[in-house]
Specification:
The protein is α/β, with parallel strands linked by helices and 681 residues long. 49% of the residues lie in helices and 12% in strands. A 7-stranded parallel β-sheet has the order 13-14-12-15-16-11-19. A 6-stranded parallel β-sheet has the order 3-2-6-7-1-8, with helices on both faces.
Length: 681
């Protein structure tokens, strides 16, 4: 028999060896929740519980596989007989067994995302008068998915997605969703969301099946319980109702996915739904040094409506205090990160030991550009590189055409943004223009009007208005304003035609940051485009073997990961927490997100806060430190300030004037932010 008391700490042992009844294990960051769950499985098996009567639900196949393998190492091959898997895989398994009760054959097909999108696309083509003016199939698929997972009427979801320019009526989306459901029934197939929806329907509406499964599964365990949605919580509550042996393991402090359906109420209200519930708190952290944990505890100290927890270090070393670094702007912040990356490398850390975790992808533009210029090996896990993003390529194609009249690729890409314009019609226009386009020529505009399809002509005036603005601006000095005009006149409407509002706003944030970067760059627009062309061809692998890479990631994608060294840039007001989240009343979730960022660090943590943001018009806007950062006492931090002028990164800041050189302020008068009122209307 395994001596669990020797293998586990006091709290882990209490959870793993608890008697029957509901248990809520509040596993704070880095406290060994996986270890606790696997030892719970081993404990039950060693005490005679048949493995096939244990169900372990996870959110990833990797997590299920890891737990099963760890349990096998403890108690042998019997562990492989437990029902371990994701909610989707377990429901699929049950539906293979009992799906006939719902009208499905055991060998029913599960549609992947491509199959689902194609089926929806076929329905749109068959039922919508003008499919080109209807939301894209992927957007409709997302609406249907959200309605399923949130248990809400499709009309409510469609209304939430609607934008001013899309003009989509909820009843049209509802009709598509109804036809999609009917078509799946005709084909006898399920999509990914159906697996959980039908799984809940199976155990809710068929008493004999429910009784059999409740008897069969004597113990039900759920990992990452704070990430469950309403359907998943109901499903597990039903399965565990007879024996009441349900163990929910999670951390309310790390509930950061409410935007995709997770409900923090599931873990907060667990003791109410399960009277007599035993609560065990895992607070002994094995990941981070004391200094990092002290900061994490302060971040969550005043969190409201959550379980109180205090992280305690298992590591005896105090470690270096986390750094609070006040920078001049985004570029000086990026240069400081590079300086520290090189310093940590000299101290013996690998590139792969370091991560830069940001609130939103657009906040990494300066970092990506400078990492490429310095040829520092890195990987971007939060998406593709900034200049590989489709919306950035769209903007660059417009800018390239202003600089070079013979840029055929830029012209074709720009024309294809107009509804009804394809490769052939764009190429035809290019030929009619004698293979060059001058945005200053009224004659070239007339050729466009004569040769574009009728549908495109309705949108052409918007594009021509952007070109007209560009005539009155300087490509050497007004690159940011040129981008601003292009978005305001034309591209904002394009984004709203193509994407749901939140996604369109995210892309606007990327372009805003790009415009600000252009406004502050040397060499004008032509110089910037030359730099971009060089960067996209650089061999950024340097001397790396392809595995030793600095990680650039959003905090959301970094959850569950850890690194010895973590940098958190843009710990500034309006950036982290994001202004949008604050406006929508989601500050509590932003606090939890900041906590997740902090607790990814094992040895060293740096929180960076620039003092200004560059604006698309070339101006600058002062920004304060993040309220989360200001709550942390300076006694817990190593507070540093990078030189507060342009020379923090070795050359004059565009527009800083002599004041920065003399240490007397920033030189250029701060400009009020115009982005939201100008671009989002």
């Amino acid at each position: 028999m395994t001596d669990f008391a020797k293998l586990l700490n006091k709290e882990q042992f209490e959870a793993a060896t608890a008697g029957d009844g509901p248990i809520l294990v509040l596993a704070a960051a880095g406290t060994g929740k996986t270890r606790t769950l696997t030892h719970r499985v081993a404990y039950l098996i060693e005490r005679g519980v048949e493995p096939e009567r244990i169900m372990l639900l996870t959110f990833t196949n990797r997590a299920a596989r890891e737990m099963r393998e760890r349990a096998e190492a403890l108690c042998g091959a019997a562990a492989y007989s437990i029902w371990a898997g994701t909610f989707h895989s377990v429901c699929a398994r049950l539906l293979r067994m009992y799906g006939a009760r719902l009208g499905y054959k055991p060998g029913f097909q599960i549609l992947d995302e491509d199959d689902s999108s194609k089926l929806i696309a076929d329905i749109i083509k068959a039922t919508v008068a003008d499919p080109k003016d209807f939301p894209k199939k992927d957007i409709v698929a997302k609406m249907i998915s959200e309605a399923a997972n949130e248990e809400k009427p499709i009309a409510a979801i469609a209304a939430r997605w609607q934008t001013k320019t899309a003009g989509v009526h909820a009843d049209e989306i509802g009709k598509i969703a109804q036809l999609y459901a009917m078509r799946k029934t005709e084909l006898g197939v399920m999509d990914f969301d159906d697996l959980i929806v039908k799984g809940l329907e199976l155990v809710s509406k068929h008493e004999d099946v429910r009784n059999h499964l409740q008897e069969r599964f004597r113990y039900v365990m759920v990992d990452e319980y704070q990430d469950t949605n309403s359907i998943q919580a109901k499903f597990t509550d039903i399965l565990a109702a007879k024996h009441r042996n349900i163990m929910a393991v999670g951390d309310d402090f790390q509930c950061i996915y409410t935007w995709r359906g997770a409900q923090i109420e599931n873990i907060i209200d667990f003791p109410k739904r399960w009277p007599g519930c035993k609560i065990v708190k895992l607070e002994r952290n094995y990941r981070s040094v004391k200094g990092v944990l002290d900061v994490a505890n302060v971040v969550m100290k005043d969190a409201t409506g959550q379980f109180e927890k205090t992280l305690r270090p298992a590591r005896t070393a105090q470690g270096a205090l986390p750094q609070k670094i006040i920078c001049f702007d985004g570029r000086s912040q990026a240069m400081e990160i590079i300086r520290q990356v090189n310093r940590f490398r000299e101290a013996g850390y690998r590139y792969g030991d370091m991560a830069i975790l940001y609130r939103s992808h657009y906040q990494s533009i300066d970092i990506q550009m400078l990492f490429a210029q310095e040829k520092l090996p890195h990987r971007i896990t939060s998406g593709i590189g900034v200049f590989e993003q489709l919306h950035v390529k769209d903007v660059l194609s417009y800018l390239r055409l202003l600089v070079s009249r013979t840029d055929e690729l830029g012209f074709v890409r720009l024309m294809r943004l107009l509804p009804g314009v394809g490769e052939k019609s764009a190429a035809k226009c290019w030929q009619k223009l004698s293979r060059r386009f001058d945005y200053r020529s009224d004659g070239d505009f007339a050729i466009l009007e004569d040769n574009l399809p009728a549908k495109a002509k309705a949108y052409l005036p918007q594009l021509l208005a952007a070109f007209a603005d560009a005539r009155n601006l300087s490509v050497e000095e007004d690159g940011g304003k040129i981008v601003d005009s292009f978005v305001f006149r034309f591209y904002n409407d394009h984004l709203n035609r193509e994407f749901e509002m939140d996604e369109a706003d995210d892309r606007l944030d990327d372009i805003k940051e790009l415009a600000a970067h252009i406004a502050g760059s040397e060499g004008g627009l032509a110089g910037f485009l030359a730099d971009v062309a060089l960067l996209t061809n650089l061999d950024v692998r340097s001397e790396s073997d392809g595995t030793d890479l600095v990680t650039l990631s959003t905090v959301h994608q970094a959850k569950g990961m850890e690194w010895p060294v973590v940098f958190v840039p843009w710990a500034s007001e309006g950036m982290f927490p994001s202004q949008k989240a604050c406006d929508e009343g989601r500050t509590d979730e932003e606090r939890r997100l900041f906590y997740v960022a902090v607790t990814r660090a094992k040895d060293r943590l740096a929180l960076l806060s620039p003092q200004i943001r560059k604006m698309p018009d070339g101006g600058i806007m002062p920004v304060k430190q993040s309220p989360f950062l200001m709550e942390i006492p300076n006694s817990l931090l190593d507070v540093r300030q990078v030189q507060s002028a342009a020379y923090a990164y070795g050359r004059p800041y565009a527009g800083s004037g002599g004041a920065a050189r003399n240490g007397g302020g920033y030189g250029r008068r701060p400009q009020p932010p115009q982005w939201k009122t100008t671009w989002r209307h």
